[in-house]
Amino acid sequence: MSQIQNQNVKTVSAPIPASKAPAEQAKSGIRVKDALEQSRVAAQVLHRALSDAAVRQAGAVTADLEAIPQEARALAVSLKKSLNSEGEAAKNCLVGAVTHLESLEKHATECLKSSGQAFETSVQQAVADARASVQKVSKALAEQRAARPSQDMGK
Fold first, then answer.
1. Phi, psi dihedral angles at 153 (to 5 degrees)
2. At what angle are helices 68-82 and 32-55 packed, to 10 degrees?
3. What is the pLDDT of residues 98-125, one digit of tens each?
4. Residue 10: phi, psi to the nearest 5?
5. d(CA 96, CA 92)
6. Per-residue pLDDT reduced to its tens digit, 124-145
7. What's the angle, vertex CA 22, arms to CA 16 and CA 26, rounded to 5?
8. Rounded distance, CA 147 to CA 3, Å?
9. Count of alpha carbons within 13 Å of 101, Cβ hemisphere only?
10. What's the first-to-final CA gap in the chain, in angstroms?
11. For residues 125 and 106, what is the distance between their CA atoms, to the nearest angstrom?
């Protein structure tokens, strides 16, 4: 398993649906309100891994880049599942994050098929999409926290 996959195996997971009973949530160790924060961490790890891969030479990057499209797709699916449990402002941010993740998946796939300047361009676009998705998920998390200020007080 590549270094990127090892980093992300524990962080990329689907959020627990809001419809799960509190006992089931307690068993899994994840609270519903933490799912978005976990998605943000996963997006940050994905961005960091892609950025690290981008600074290496093309030959050394290929193995690491092979995992990126699947990880971006998994994170996009996870965020899509959590859309229904979010407020309108957070939902809009998450839709933007999903769009950037889908674009990231496309550019990362293009990287594997190209070389030279086309490779560099695809990597730069993929890194930009990863950064934008992190920003959108962070903004969604801020919107979520702003919508629930009384619940987060004292924690």
1. -70, 140
2. 160
3. 999 999 999 988 888 888 888 888 888 9
4. -85, -20
5. 6
6. 898 899 999 999 999 988 888 8
7. 75
8. 37
9. 28
10. 38
11. 10
What's the chain's Rg over C-alpha atoms?
A: 16
3-state helix, strand, coil in the chain (%, to 5): 80, 0, 20
Query: How far apart (Å, rounded) are the C-alpha atoms in residues 105 and 129?
Result: 9
Tokens 């962080």: give the residue: 11
The residue written with tokens 């070389």 in the block is 115
Give the tens place of pLDDT for each residue, 43-94.
888 888 887 777 665 555 677 778 888 889 999 998 888 888 788 888 889 8
Which among 65, 57, 59, 79 has a CA at the least distance from the CA of 4? 65
Cβ contact 22:30 at 8 Å: no
- Rounded to whole angstroms, how far apart are CA atoms 153 and 155? 6
Structure tokens at 96: 């933007």
Q: How many CB atoms lie within 10 A of CB 103?
A: 19
